[in-house]
Amino acid sequence: MDADVIVVGSGHNGLVAAAYLAKWGYKVKVFERRSTIGGAVCTEEMFGGFRMDVGGSAHFMIHHTPIVEDLELSRYGLEYIPLDPFMSAPFEDGTGISFYRDVDATCQSIARVSERDADAYREFIRTWQPLNEAIFELFLKAPTGRNIGRTFAFRKLHRSKAERKEVLRKIFGSYGKLLTDTFESEKVRAALAWWGAQSGPPPTDAVTSEFVAWHSVIHKEGPARPKGGSGMLTQALASYIEDHGGEIYSGVPVDRILVEGGSACGIELEGGDRYFARRIISNAHLWVTFLQLLREWTPPDLERDVRSVRVGNGFGMVLRCAMERLPSYNLDTIPDDEIVKGMQLLCPSEQYLIDSYADYLRAMPSRDPAAIAMTFSAIDPTLAPEGKHTLFVWGQYYPYSLRNGSKWPDIRDAEARKLLGVVDRFAPGTSEALIDWYVQSPDQISEKHNMPNANVMHVEMSIDQMFMFRPLPQLSRYSTPLPGLYLANAGMHPGGGIFGAPGYACAHTMRRSMPRR
What's the whole-model pTM score? Predict the structure, then answer.
């Protein structure tokens, strides 16, 4: 045996699983096809000293796990810089709303557009926070009936029976309806709807209210950014693994997962070299794992079920811009040096968001895309040369497969200019400060990260593909029908984002099947 555990892929979930197993004394080897590790949580230097994320940038979810503290990642170079405000929504009439870690400060900002909604927001946090604290506990466990029951048993989540019934009713509704019922200001609803849309489903889909309701726990553990770029998280995880006896190999694509005696037993690299282990963890996408790496093993029934999982038609695109200066929003209520500390939600109304999604359903890029601007160099000068800045612009609802035979290479530049133009709409003159950019259209996201259809959540985050149904009932507990094979990726419970929970839960699940070290 070459190792106790082999991990295929170095995305952050795979590295989290590997780090815990190394912590517990198991011999771990990680194999990554790219020359750089980190998967979709990776930072690369471009344009003469600009540090650009090439995958996820927003670190919201991982702070609701014990991962950073358990693994003492601060000892391995990971330093988080708090975002406060963590996000703001500017509007073209000069008003804006900022969301701070402090609920009172957030309510004061909301009161500038609606005093009633300031009170409603405080009540919204009080109502939804206890439930979502419990849900986040469940996110760190395999989604079994027993774990669900234990997580919610004996909890007093709401003040009265009537309130419990009302919350249950709202859970089955859409987050658009939840926002309409809760807030009167279109501006408040637009900001929170666009934030809720980051998980994928539009504001009109049923059983999506939690995509906004989970926002209530952000005020408990505020978002923060790794100094030096998003990829500093995966760099710290890699250092931890190596410090605990693990080995990480980059630039070595895995061709297939080996099966002997009915169990996963190792891997074969594209060059033909083989490595053997007691357990295999696939950090790769569901389709990559079963349709490519296990192409000689996957039985027809499982192949049919895997192909039936809704991966969706893309998700978004992102611009990585080297800038002479930061955007200037010139708002009446939020100073420029404050708004650029967090994410900027550029979406004037909920209907604007729905219209963007309607274009996506037609397999067309949004004619008027909603966007999120991220200016992390405002709080982290290590990201750019002195006096310069970075600007990341995320646009959602960009289909991977286009209608009428259109191809992304033919329209990429025009769509990138349109997306940067959204920032100009709210912060005039921003595009004039552009030095250079790296455009990640859906085809490039898919190719770079081996991510089918460029869905950054791996599979759609709809209710029929969540909890014990994610990605399929027979795969939802991180183990698989192939003994010895486990899964740790964004397609597993609880889903995508820079969270680490799938890797955390996979490692703890696997440990129960292995001899103690």
Answer: 0.96
